[in-house]
Design a protein that fits this description.
By secondary structure, the chain is of the alpha+beta class. The chain is built from three helices and 14 strands. A hairpin with a 3-residue loop joins strand 11 and strand 12.
Length: 298
């Protein structure tokens, strides 16, 4: 009786162990996201940052304005920009810029970001000089191209003649060109400013540093900076590489190899026989227990 009682759980444990050895481990797989992003870009035809001083600089009026400023995705086309400053030019509107063509365009997606600004036959005015253009240009363009996976590119061009304060100007890439007009003021012009990094590009066709001191119209002095045809961009962020999925075939082969190694040690190929033997032992123990119970009942 004690012997039969001991063998039954032993047989059950042996059979359970055999089944556990036969079972194969499940294959696991993970998916990685791409994480790709869009680039950014923007363009502006004219940007002003001027300080207008009235009554011997007793009053300061900021003249900060932009024409056709866009960020991707967008396109703008406007050929005139009018600003009104109380106290300047006797309260009359100031036509800061007039042009035959003034366009800005910016695009951006996962493949790249691009921006472009164009001006043609443009004239820029500042308060105090209604009859004299601060600058006149025939054509200026700037482009910024940030293609995914490539080095960003920035280009700008000033085509045709340039006139500052009524004087024709010859621009050079070596440095700024300065124009002085007695009784009116001075303008410093810098040609084709471009900058690039590993992920960004920026271009400005013309930068002007202005110091104008007209003798009438209640304007004491105009100081600041103007930018013509500006474009910039930033490359898209690269897509994250997806995580490698485990090779199911390799895992199957590994499982088969493990089972083969178990067979070499006497634990793999004979496992079915062990399980069968365990079941036979279990049946024999059950039969013996039944006979014992019959003997007691009789």
């Amino acid at each position: 009786m004690n012997s039969n009682t001991f063998r039954m759980p032993a047989a059950v444990l042996l059979a359970t162990g055999a089944v556990a050895l036969i079972a194969a481990p499940p294959a696991l797989a993970t998916d990685g996201g791409s994480g790709a992003g869009q680039g950014t870009s923007g363009a502006v035809v004219l940007r002003t940052g001027l300080d207008v001083g009235l009554l011997n600089k007793a009053v300061h009026l900021p003249l900060k304005a932009t024409l056709n400023e866009v960020t991707a995705p967008a396109t703008a086309e406007k050929t005139a920009l009018t600003v009104t400053l109380d106290g300047a030019e006797q309260g009359q509107p100031v036509n800061v810029l007039k042009a035959d063509v003034a366009t800005a365009k910016a695009t951006a997606d996962a493949n790249g970001a691009r921006a472009e600004a164009n001006l043609a036959h443009a004239r820029v005015h500042v308060p105090g000089l209604p009859a004299l253009s601060l600058i006149e240009v025939e054509k200026v363009t700037s482009k910024a191209d940030c293609e995914a996976g490539k080095k960003p590119v920035a280009t700008s061009n000033v085509l045709g003649t340039v006139t500052a304060l009524g004087k024709k100007v010859t621009l050079t890439a070596g440095g700024p060109t300065k124009v002085d007009v007695p009784g009116v003021g001075s303008v410093s012009l810098e040609l084709s400013d471009t900058q690039t990094t590993s992920t960004t590009a920026a271009a400005a066709a013309l930068r002007l540093k202005v110091s104008v001191n007209p003798l009438n119209l209640n304007v004491a002095q105009v100081d600041g900076e103007l930018v013509l045809a500006e474009a910039h961009c930033e490359s898209p962020k690269p897509a994250a590489k997806p995580e490698a999925k485990p090779d199911v075939k390799a895992q199957t082969a590994l499982t088969s190899s493990t089972q083969g190694n178990l067979a070499e040690t006497g634990a793999g190929s004979v496992t079915p026989w062990i399980a069968g033997g365990a079941l036979l032992l279990l049946g024999a123990g059950g039969g013996a227990l039944a006979l014992t119970r019959r003997g007691r009942s009789s």
